[in-house]
Amino acid sequence: GLEEGAKNQFSTFSNFITTINQKKEGIGNRSSPTQLVIPNIKNGRDLPPLCLDVRQKQRMSMDALPQELKAPSPPEPPLPIRTKTVKDFQDDMEKSKASGDWKAVHNFYSTTFDSFLEINAAFKKDTNSPFNTIEDSGIDAKFVNVVYDALLNTPQDVQKSVLKGIINGLLQEWTGPRTKDDLRAYCILLQNPQFSNTSTYVIYAHLLRQIAALTEADHHFLVHWSKKISQKRFKQVVDRLLQFISLRLFPAKPEEFPPMVKCTWWIPSATKVLALFNAANSLISPPIISYTDFYNSTLDHIDLMEEYHNWQCYGNSHRFSFCQYPFIISIAAKKVIIQRDSEQQMISIARQSLVDKVSRRQKPDMNMLFLNVKVRRTHLVSDSLDELARKKADLKKKLKVTFVGEAGLDMGGLTKEWFLLLIRQIFHPDYGMFTYHKDSQCHWFSSFKCDNYSEFRLVGALMGLAVYNSITLDIRFPPCCYKKLLSPPIVPCDHNTLVGICGVTLDDLFQIMPELAHGLSELLSYEGNVEEDFYSTFQVFQEEFGVIKSYNLKPNGDKIPVTNQNRKEYVQLYVDFLLNKSIYKQFAAFYYGFHSVCASYALLLLRPEEVEILVCGSPELDMSALQRSTQYEGYQKTDLTIRYFWDVVLEFSLDLQKKLLHFATGSDRVPVGGMADLNFKISKSETSTNWLPVAHTCFNQLCLPPYKNKKELKQKLIIGISNAEGFGLE
């Protein structure tokens, strides 16, 4: 960063806020759109497209904005003429390094960053062109990158001159709407690497405040311009903003910053600017960086439930809450919110049951505090369906399972076994509810029509119960399923409102039926005459119980040929038919089943990918982490057999590691909390070493005989995990 002396460089900057206040006093009551001295960000304009308002009960994003927001465009003031090129600048840098004379470089930096006009004069690709569309910011990105990359390698006085210039730009008095040149300057200043240093945070905070207070139309431009930034620079800006928020929340040296009471607007401003980059990231497919790169794990250590309750009570009004910007909250933190919200609902429901019982002068029964499910193994699905249908009012109580005719208390193992057996039976191809697609290795809803869709509701309720009771399920649904499950995330009050319908694309179909999607993709790119060569209409056919049935994709579709002109419409309607319309009743039942258990405003915080992780766990395996958290029974971690075991497992391919995890736990995915949350145990099996390892998936337990050597252990383990279909139940 700014190396030695960085802390002292603010001998004049440390009074920055005081300077700004004095400046304001000097201009009296004149309006100042910069809002630098307003002590609370709430006076800036709210940004409803960028954050969530729980009271509106809907998701909002920048995608909803029109392609161009019409706003009055103020005239651009004339720019100074600056002719320095990238090569000229690089030559100056080389000469300065060789000679030790930094005068030319110092002059360039102090002039360039002295005002927003000078920033544009230096970095605008063509000073005579307005560049007033969202498509092109007009910024010479290469020149900006070269100048910033060189900045941290210049002497301290050069770096200080840049910061002084930025202060001058921020102190400029605004007499009307921001010009596109102003927005360009903000876009360039956000990429300044000096803002990684905490000694610059006072200046950085005021830059962020001005950007956060811009109009929605100006934000629209910044979002679209930001998506053109290179991946490396984009991530640097995001990381810088996340670090700023973390260090303001938990400063390593509190004396470096103004007191929190005087800068309560720092974190809201930074979070709003971060929301612009999140919106930009979501506009591109694939995104510039992963959605997980916006997580701030520091928030895992704050009072999340207070944040959640503030959001529920105040929505998007005057009180800031991180829940308004859920992209910044990690999946681990969201799981904590959902679990605690679930626990509070469980306690509330159980307490109400107890009060009702006492008010009727009946003797309380401890069983009334739980959702007690009693099933016969021979009638697993029908009994489960009956129990859950009969006990709708108890779905939000703690789940306990009993298998009829079997002794045993449910301490978690029976519940997990119930889930495993039920899911396996329901998803079996012979059962007919779901179709397994080998190419994509996932299940999808059968489009067969039937009189009763209650079993789909059961599957939805099972998924909800799994999330509610922190059980990881071995379910293979495509990402599209979870997108539909959050459409909408809160069950609508009007039962006539369609649910489970979302915008679907050919990419969604590729994840389920890649061969069909490839064929449709070929149709879109076909260069010949589509109508004559394909001879298709807007009618599709499906086989149902051996009978071929036809469906029109639009009215009179059987009479409308598919042509070069309308083939895009045909493909879109076909994809919508397959993923939405043909399975609407099945998915609607599934949707209502899930939300009958998981109805919570906390679902508004989740992305579809995060719902999948909560239900099925994460596919990212870290076997070293599993080794560190494993418990032993009958073995010590230093025993030869255990050392052989981990040597073998850590050398396994990813496929074999997944098989081992599936063998021992019933799923090849990891809970949200990581490997430690598995509570994996290796027990000594007092049997012959000729035996294969045995697993108790209900308890995440592996029973391992004391094999004599590494080769024998590896051979037996691979045989065991590769041939582990079925349960040996006694």
Automatic annotation (TrEMBL):
Domain HECT: start-end pairs? 391-730
For this protein, what is the EC number? 2.3.2.26
Pfam families per record: HECT
Q: Any idea which UniProt keywords this protein has?
A: Ligase, Phosphoprotein, Transferase, Ubl conjugation pathway
Which pathway does the protein contribute to? Answer: Protein modification; protein ubiquitination
**Which Gene Ontology BP annotations are present?**
protein polyubiquitination
List the catalytic activities from the record.
S-ubiquitinyl-[E2 ubiquitin-conjugating enzyme]-L-cysteine + [acceptor protein]-L-lysine = [E2 ubiquitin-conjugating enzyme]-L-cysteine + N(6)-ubiquitinyl-[acceptor protein]-L-lysine
Classification via SMART domains: HECTc
Q: Which domain of life is it from?
A: Eukaryota
Active site location: C698
**Function, please?**
E3 ubiquitin-protein ligase which accepts ubiquitin from an E2 ubiquitin-conjugating enzyme in the form of a thioester and then directly transfers the ubiquitin to targeted substrates.
Q: Which PANTHER family match?
A: HECT-TYPE E3 UBIQUITIN TRANSFERASE, UBIQUITIN-PROTEIN LIGASE E3C
Q: What's the protein name?
A: Probable E3 ubiquitin-protein ligase HECTD2
Gene from which the chain derives:
Hectd2
